[in-house]
Amino acid sequence: MTSPMPAPPFVPGAVLRSPVGLGRATAVLLGLVIATDLFACFADLAERNVAGDLADGVTGAGVLHRADHADALYRVAGLTQAGALVATAVVYLCWLWRVRVNAEVFDQSAHSMRRGWTIGAWFCPVVNLWFPRRIVLEAWDASVPWGARIRHAPVNAWWTLWIISLLAGRFASMSWRHAGTPGLLRSAAGQMLFSDAVDVAAAILAIVVVVHLTRMQHRKALAGQVPSPVSG
Q1: CB–CB of 4/15 below 8 Å?
Q2: Domain spans of the chain?
Q3: In its keyword annotation, does this UniProt entry include Kinase (predicted)?
Q4: Which pLDDT tens digit goes with each residue over 126-172?
Q5: How many Cα atoms within 13 Å fall on the side-chain side of residue 41?
Q6: Fewest beta carbons less than 10 Å away: which of 30, 37, 119, 178?
Q7: Alpha carbons 183 and 80: distance in angstroms, whole number
């Protein structure tokens, strides 16, 4: 259970509360996502290697056994990734809601979208490619320590890799479903390996964003109210 932090002037519908607990939980679960992605990379490599052998004409009981093992690894990797993603998404959205409300208390004028978009933006087609980034950036700007210069590099880097991973994963999944030959299967496994590797990098940067934004809000709340931060 979290306790309220010292609050600036009252904002209707917004209460300043510590994001530290949710931030830590989100970072830990993002670490779990990284672990499952690394396992998926291992499964992708196994699938790619055995598909390459089959495409090159290698036959026999040994390669068939490896193919069965690679398929099993691939299925398990997909299940663990899905489970980690769902668990992380739930906690992450709770954390994001908390930091968004806190950001409204810090600076209500910094937000161009209604609070409901904090959750809804992730589930609306097309706009989910840029609305969540805007929401995080606005919460970031409102949470920057008083008088500090605003820098968006961590958020922009995280979001860029997240979009690349998302699009690459969808393309790889489509290629996998239509892979009717060992050669096509090898290509699809390589595409999935790229997607999973980029997702590892995106998750690492997501941890950086979560930890940094959580710390900024905590420190700003403890510092009390002074003039707005400097843009630049």
Answers
A1: yes
A2: 20-223
A3: no
A4: 999 999 999 999 999 999 887 777 889 999 999 999 999 999 999 99
A5: 14
A6: 178
A7: 26
